[in-house]
């Protein structure tokens, strides 16, 4: 019977490297959920979709945690919101809130976090211009899902100009500022980490 050194050491001295990594991953996901929840509460009230720091959090978590953990963090956050926990912006919770005007943006968060993780794996997060490009891609993904859902809900009654204005136009300045902030902060953190 072959006994591995990791098994012997793990039994004698505690968790193995694999278990330690799993604990670290769980802690990073929980931290990601907490960051998203806090970012959702930093808001400028607007109707039908408020301005929040969620997009900044989603995109930087995707870049910082990578595709797997970034996506898991966002999906876990969405699952908690769907279950009725107060993690989303404002008063709404549960599936009814997710079916409202913000629903498309919430779905877009998962795809954007995954894209940011994939781009970070290719090194886009290591320079200001690369991170700015990645943020543009991530933001565009969020808008594709968000505007698509807004059009589904409001296009017939309000028209395309209204959907564009309240689904994207009102957010462009704020998103540009978030893009600049992330493009400056994330590559700087990589330099500090080195």
From TrEMBL:
<dbReference type="Pfam" id="PF02632">
    <property type="entry name" value="BioY"/>
</dbReference>
<keyword id="KW-0812">Transmembrane</keyword>
<comment type="similarity">
    <text>Belongs to the BioY family.</text>
</comment>
<feature type="transmembrane region" description="Helical">
    <location>
        <begin position="171"/>
        <end position="190"/>
    </location>
</feature>
<feature type="transmembrane region" description="Helical">
    <location>
        <begin position="26"/>
        <end position="44"/>
    </location>
</feature>
<feature type="transmembrane region" description="Helical">
    <location>
        <begin position="132"/>
        <end position="151"/>
    </location>
</feature>
<feature type="transmembrane region" description="Helical">
    <location>
        <begin position="103"/>
        <end position="120"/>
    </location>
</feature>
<protein>
    <recommendedName>
        <fullName>Biotin transporter</fullName>
    </recommendedName>
</protein>
<keyword id="KW-1133">Transmembrane helix</keyword>
<feature type="transmembrane region" description="Helical">
    <location>
        <begin position="56"/>
        <end position="83"/>
    </location>
</feature>
<keyword id="KW-1003">Cell membrane</keyword>
<dbReference type="InterPro" id="IPR003784">
    <property type="entry name" value="BioY"/>
</dbReference>
<keyword id="KW-0813">Transport</keyword>
<keyword id="KW-0472">Membrane</keyword>
């Amino acid at each position: 019977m072959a006994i591995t050194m990791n098994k012997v050491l793990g039994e004698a001295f505690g968790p193995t490297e694999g278990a330690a990594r799993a604990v670290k991953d769980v802690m990073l996901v929980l931290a990601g959920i907490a960051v998203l929840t806090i970012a959702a509460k930093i808001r400028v009230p607007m109707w039908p979709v408020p301005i929040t720091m969620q997009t900044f959090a989603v995109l930087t978590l995707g870049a910082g945690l990578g595709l797997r953990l970034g996506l898991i963090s966002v999906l876990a956050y969405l699952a908690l919101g769907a279950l009725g926990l107060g993690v989303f912006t404002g008063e709404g919770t549960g599936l009814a809130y997710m079916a409202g005007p913000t629903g498309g943006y919430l779905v877009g968060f998962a795809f954007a976090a995954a894209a940011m993780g994939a781009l970070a794996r290719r090194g886009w997060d290591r320079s200001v211009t690369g991170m700015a490009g990645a943020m543009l891609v991530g933001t565009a993904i969020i808008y594709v899902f968000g505007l698509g859902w807004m059009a589904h809900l409001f296009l017939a009654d309000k028209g395309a100009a209204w959907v564009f204005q309240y689904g994207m136009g009102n957010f462009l300045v704020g998103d540009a500022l978030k893009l600049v902030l992330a493009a400056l902060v994330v590559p700087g953190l990589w330099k500090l980490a080195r």
